[in-house]
Amino acid sequence: MISVSFLKSKYSREETIKLIDNSDASLIHVDLMDGEYVPNKNFTLEEIMLLLNKTKKPLDIHLMVKNPLIYIKELVKLKPYIITIHLDGTPNIEETLAYIRSHHIKVGVAINPDESEHIVDKYLDKIDYVLIMSVYPGAGGQKFISEVLEKVNYLKDKFLVGIDGGVNDESIKYLKDYPLDIVVSGSFICMSDNFNERIHLLEKNLPKA
Ligand code: DX5
Ligand code: ZN
């Protein structure tokens, strides 16, 4: 499944979201940054709720924030498909994971390029999805770090697995031996004139999960 991030786009926020919503993407990837967990800050909770309360496609929310539970308590109202958190930004991990699941939302954990795939070992039965970061969180349009793919094999029989950051027509070649459940792509799609053309190009070059 292709999940499209609207962090970096040549269109306005509203327009980009509409274009993704009307495209052949499977999911809308929502990056939320608080200026604390990562240096950049993009939206307030109020803005994100307004931007996304009328979209048709399932939402794949990626929280790059300190203390995600505060955000999650509001975001559950959007009925997202997945909510993904970073464990190193989360003071009350067990409670946060359980809260997401209690709302019948898939529980995601993101693994930064410098973090080991084993950070999820303690929470094996509390997590549904692992998002392998192929860039350092904080900005769209960065270069794909192919070494992170070494984490896929350990994770793939245990969870749904996705990759996020720097996926484009060039870096896609690294994914050919790694069937992934979700591939996030942002600027490659949103900086283009034809979202579907780019989504289909990625799909065509990805192995079947
Ligand atoms: C990075 C974000 C990614 C990013 C993807 O902090 O989590 O989702 O926006 O965008 P591209 O594909 O441009 O790297
Ligand atoms: Zn993301």
Structure, described:
- The structure is a single chain.
- With 209 residues, the chain is α/β, with parallel strands linked by helices.
- The protein has a single domain (2-204), classed as Alpha-Beta Barrel (TIM Barrel).
- 26% of the residues lie in helices and 20% in strands.
- The chain is built from seven helices and eight strands, in the order βαβαβαβαββαββαα.
- It has helices spanning 13-21, 45-52, 68-75, 93-102, 152-156, 187-190, 195-205; strands at residues 2-5, 27-33, 59-64, 82-86, 106-111, 129-133, 160-164, 182-185.
- It has an eight-stranded parallel β-barrel, surrounded by four helices.
- α3 (68-75) runs parallel beside α4.
- It is globular, with a radius of gyration of 16 Å.
- The model has no long low-confidence stretch (mean pLDDT 97).
- The structure holds D-xylitol-5-phosphate and zinc ion.
- Zinc ion binds next to β2.
Brief characterization of the structure:
This protein has seven helices and eight strands; from the N terminus they run βαβαβαβαββαββαα. With 209 residues, the protein is of the alpha/beta class.
Biggest sheet, strands in spatial order? Answer: 1-2-3-4-5-6-7-8
Class computed from helices, strands and strand pairing: alpha/beta
Mean pLDDT equals 97
Give the CA-based shape: globular
Distance between the termini: 9 Å
Q: Let me know the largest β-sheet.
A: 8 strands, parallel, barrel
Reading the helices and strands in chain order gives EHEHEHEHEEHEEHH
Count of helices? 7
The ligands bound in this entry are: D-xylitol-5-phosphate, zinc ion
Domain unit count: 1
CATH superfamily name? Aldolase class I
Number of strands: 8
